[in-house]
Design a protein that fits this description.
The protein has six helices and 21 strands. With 315 residues, it is an alpha+beta fold. The longest helix is centred in the last third of the chain and has 17 residues. The N and C termini lie far apart (53 Å).
Length: 315
């Protein structure tokens, strides 16, 4: 069987089918096997650990999870990801049409679950290479996180990871690993950053998973590798009217609270893994400045915001 080898979030992925969008592997390293195994299996008899109707997660045991996706009211939209110790992901699906959506989920929540099983801290934020290292841009929906990351890329910075920051605390620096060379944007964010949304490919075939489009980035706009994190910027709700953006640095206690509230796919974690992630957030906060950014809703001020985010020096 042909295997397809990729590098993402510090892991080598060995897949039985191509996974569009991932960076081909050029070196060895710890591997995750992704096996596309065909027809779905029945749901477990045990109650799920978590569900929102469309997404359901079972913890079959401490290191074996089953993640299922369904579209309520849509027959045939059912597929699953089974995790064995964070080292193997078995993909099963109801119909071949679902293979248009499955790779895009693997790039985000799909790989996040494997990282959590391996004890890798994962934060919810866009990562951008600003030249002196990387910054992580966080923010609640509506604060302009995607718009800001896209504007940084348009201004000459390189994307490292979109939406998911896989952190490596083993070195003296806090490092973040690259994701995939695609920037996912809602149509309004794409338009604000200068792309025509009608010319961009939908990330997901089904509306259930959202209306984001993606920009395929070349080597001039994407950086592969592990990068030291110079700062974390947390975008606050936008204020009405004009005015320059302002930045303040959170103290260490507030910083780790901010990071802990931005753990990616926190819904997947049991109490033990939540504690470990929060502990890792405290370690990150002790070594990297966390800065609150207040900006206006005036798009004319976006260039000043990008200048501010691109300066990752001391506060």
């Amino acid at each position: 069987m042909t295997r397809h080898s990729y590098r993402v979030y510090g892991l080598r992925v060995e897949s039985s089918r191509p996974i569009p969008g991932l960076v081909p592997a050029r070196e060895g390293g710890d591997a995750v096997a992704v096996d596309f195994a065909g027809q779905t299996e029945p749901d477990p008899d045990t109650p799920p650990f978590w569900t929102n109707g469309a997404e359901t997660l079972w913890h079959l045991d401490a290191d074996t999870w089953l993640l299922a996706y369904r579209a309520p009211g849509r027959d045939g939209y059912h597929w699953t990801l089974r995790y064995d110790g964070g080292r193997r992901i078995t993909v099963r699906w109801e119909s071949e049409a679902l293979l248009r959506d499955i790779p895009a989920v693997l790039q985000g929540p799909g790989m996040a679950a494997a990282l959590h099983l391996r004890g890798v801290p994962v934060l919810h934020g866009c990562v951008v290479d600003v030249g002196a290292g990387a910054i992580v841009v966080m923010g609640a929906p509506g604060t302009g996180k995607s718009t800001s990351a896209a504007a940084l890329v348009r201004a000459g910075c390189r994307l490292v990871s979109d939406d998911l920051a896989a952190i490596d605390l083993r070195a003296e620096d806090v490092l973040v690993e690259h994701g995939y060379p695609r920037l996912r944007l809602f149509p309004d964010s794409a338009a604000a950053a200068g792309w025509d949304p009608s010319q961009l490919t939908r990330t997901f075939d089904t509306p259930l998973l959202g209306d984001k489009r993606y920009v395929q980035l070349d080597a001039d706009h994407f950086s592969a590798g592990a990068f030291p994190v110079r700062a974390v910027y947390v975008l606050q709700p936008r204020r009405a009217g004009r005015g320059d953006p302002t930045v303040t640095t959170a103290d260490r206690e507030e910083a780790w609270h901010i990071l802990a509230s931005n753990i990616y796919a926190l819904r997947f974690l049991d109490a033990h893994r939540r504690f470990r992630c929060v502990r890792d957030c405290a370690a990150i906060a002790s070594r990297v400045p966390v800065r609150r950014v207040q900006a206006s809703d005036d798009l004319g001020a976006l260039p000043r915001l990008i200048d501010l985010l691109g300066d990752a020096g001391p506060a």
